[in-house]
Amino acid sequence: MEKIPPSKASRRQGSKVMISYCPCQYDLAQKIAEGLIAKGIPAVCPPLRMHEMIKIAAEEARVVIPLTSEAYEASNISKYVLSYVDEVSIPIVSVKAQDRYSQSGWLGVICAGALWTRITNANDIEKRLDNLIGQLHPYISDAFDDEQRLATLVQGYHMQ
């Protein structure tokens, strides 16, 4: 007997840029989020709790910025959060947060082909923020129009 695959629920697209980080990157993540907000880009830097990060990704994220580094790649929280982001097809624009680092393993697979900007410390943010915003632009340029249109739909998930 042939099995009929279950209908796939699609995730309601959020309107914010979410920063995904590991514990040692909190300050850099906050500064990037503050820089984006100062430039008029809605951004969120969630608490470093896996369930909170996944909930925010599911409900609010339009695009996710992982701060890729050896520490990020070694972090189980980061792995679970970014694996979820990849599974539900939230776009990823990486920030390489460590000099002389190339992602490999699970992170290399998820981020393969993704756009990225190098921001290794707080001093890089001002110089490189416009480049990051340029890479985010295709994903966020229509966020406000979509948010108004989606306000008429049921909150959360809807069937396609």
Can you describe what's shown?
With 160 residues, this protein is an alpha/beta fold. It has helices spanning 26-38, 50-60, 70-74, 76-87, 105-111, 122-140, 143-150; strands at 9-10, 16-20, 43-44, 61-68, 94-96, 116-118, 158-159. The strands form two sheets. A five-stranded parallel β-sheet has the order 3-2-4-5-6, with helices on both faces. The longest helix is centred in the C-terminal third of the chain and has 19 residues, at 122-140. The model is unreliable at 3-10 and 147-160 (pLDDT under 50). This is TIR domain-containing protein.
Top keywords for this entry?
single chain, 160 residues, alpha/beta, Rossmann fold, 5-stranded parallel sheet, two-stranded antiparallel ribbon, 7 strands, 16% strand, disordered N terminus, disordered C terminus
Number-wise, the strands total 7
Backbone CA Rg? 16 Å
Give the distance, in angstroms, between the N- and C-terminal Cα atoms. 25 Å
CATH architecture, please? 3-Layer(aba) Sandwich
**CATH class assignment:** Alpha Beta
For the largest sheet, list the strands in their spatial order.
3-2-4-5-6
The proportion of residues in beta strands is: 15-25%
